[in-house]
Amino acid sequence: MQMKQRWCVRHTGKAALGAAVLAVMGMSGQAQGQSGLSIDSGAITYADHVAQIITDNCVVCHREGAIGPMQLTNYEQVRPWAPLIGMRVANKEMPPYSYDDHIGIQELQGDWRLSDEEINTITQWVAQGAPEGDWGDRSHPVANLPASDEWTFAAQFGQPTLILDSEPIDVPALGNDMWHRPFVETGLTTDRCIKAIQVKPAGNAKAVVHHANSNVEIMNADGEYEDVGMLTEYAMGKWGEIAPDGVCRTLPANARIRWDIHLFPGGVGATAPGTVIEDNVVEIGIWLHPEGYETQAKYKQDLKLYRLDEGELVVPPHGTAMTQGFHSFDHPVRVDSFQPHGHLRMRAASLEIYYPATGRTEQISQISNWSATWHHSHLYEADVAPLIPTGAVMVIKQWYDNTANNPNNPDPDFWVVAGSRTADEMTHAWLAITHLDEAGYQEIVAQREAAKQRSVAGQ
Questions:
Q1: What DSSP assignment string belongs to 223-290?
Q2: Is CATH 2.60.120.230 the classification given to domain 154-296?
Q3: Out of 76, 164, 279, 399, which could bridge 284 as a Cys pair, Cβ 3.0 to 4.6 Å?
Q4: CA 53 to each of CA 45, 133, 146, 161, 210: distance values in angstroms, whole numbers, following the listed order
Q5: Domain spans of the chain?
Q6: Can you name the residues that pair with 165 across neighbouring β-strands?
Q7: pLDDT the model gives residue 318
Q8: What is the DSSP letter of 413?
């Protein structure tokens, strides 16, 4: 089941709106040729063609109490913004899911990108004057949406098995970056396998939470807590994580969770009121497999931070920089998800695999218009998730732009160096990886080859 959520159209002045109208009108002929749907063949209306697209892809953010700067829950609200929506959609700026088309793996879970058909429908609707059409006895599809604060995976898995809240904290309207590091007990008395996990800042906390990492700690024989690995990572805009079938991402018994929450006074987005935001709480929702699943799962999965240490992370004023990291394993692995991380000057990232035996490099993922306001964990569909044989090398690259050409750059006159503040930069990526053995690797390769042969035979 594919789920699309959270996209936002940002405020634009009247001049830009006028330009948007001209841009959309000018590209309507191109859209017509791409889709095969002729404007002369019949009217494209909001009721018949557009309302469902807007509801499925926009309203989750653009409704009362959500992060979007305007509401888009009915025709009266959508119509004034139609030219801007058309331009943003045509330029693939909205929904805000920066993942390059036609490069590497394209089969992703939680992919917010619109199809070409959806893009063409919206742009031609705008070119025709954005008519409403006749609803007849139909109701608006927005009536079927879940609540704006619902868990991402509720429709798929039900409510979380376990919800862990951080301690509340007040965040001022102005000031320096803040870090909040409370502990919380899980209450579990047996080891359990995680099916899915989501971090959700509650209420207005979504405006001030930059990231919220969580580590698992268990008590050792000396009665002291020790870190045994990551539970999950959250940064602004992240959808969540799903573990593939047949693997166990373990949440151990009698563990506690150590939060590391980075808060940014003043916040971002339409929900930040510019005043003190009180009682900020961040929640972790965890969907667990039934007890005993760990005995059925063949392999373990973990989430880790992979650093990019080649290339000094110093970005001069009006300059650029690039970093890369190389990581290999002494056993075969499957990469289940890829999430680049940086701050305001980071602009692009990529994941490649280098095969020393042949000298070949394979492109896996590329993100050429990255934004710190939308951190996406790109979850590969299980039947295409990249397999890395023993000794092959993951190559992760990230690019930084400290010039005025970067629309996210607050000040190109500053020297930018590595650091934890929002004004600093970071260079790493989060990857969820299933650790295989040689027999398991060969089994998956054989299954994929057999599926490919069946597909060819069925054509």
A1: S-EEEEEEEE--BTT---EEPPTTEE-EE-TT-EEEEEEEE-TT-SSTT--SS-EEEE-EEEEEEEPP
A2: yes
A3: 164
A4: 12, 15, 16, 31, 29
A5: 14-144, 154-296, 299-443
A6: 283
A7: 98
A8: T
Which pair of structure tokens corresponds to residue 283?
A: 């929640």
Beta carbons of 99 and 113 less than 8 angstroms apart: yes
Distance CA 381, CA 187 (A): 32
Question: What is the residue whose two structure tokens read 């805009």?
Answer: 237
DSSP state of 62: S
Cα radius of gyration (the chain): 23
Query: pLDDT at position 22, please?
Result: 37
Q: Please report, as a single letter, which amino acid is at residue 187.
A: G
User: Number of helices and strands (H, E) in the chain?
Assistant: 8, 25
Q: Hey, what's the torsion of the CAs at 96, 100, 101, 104, to 10 degrees? A: -140
Q: 160 preceded by cis ω (within 30°)?
A: no
Q: Using CA atoms, how far apart are residues 361 and 441, in angstroms rounded to an integer?
A: 20
**Separation of alpha carbons 372 and 422, rounded Å:** 10
Q: Which DSSP letter does residue 47 get?
A: I
Element (H, E) at 294: helix 293-296
208 phi and psi angles, rounded to 5 deg: -120, -5
What is the bridge-based pairing of β-strands 360-367 and 416-417? Answer: unpaired
Rounded to the nearest 10°, the torsion over CA 431, 113, 94, 402 is 30
Instruction: Please list the rounded mean pLDDT of every run of 10 residues in the chain (459 residues).
Output: 36 34 38 39 87 90 81 93 94 90 94 93 95 90 77 93 95 89 95 95 84 94 93 89 94 96 77 76 96 92 93 92 96 97 96 96 96 90 96 97 94 94 93 96 94 79
Q: Please tell me the distance from the alpha carbon of residue 263 to that of residue 252, in angstroms, as a whole number.
A: 28
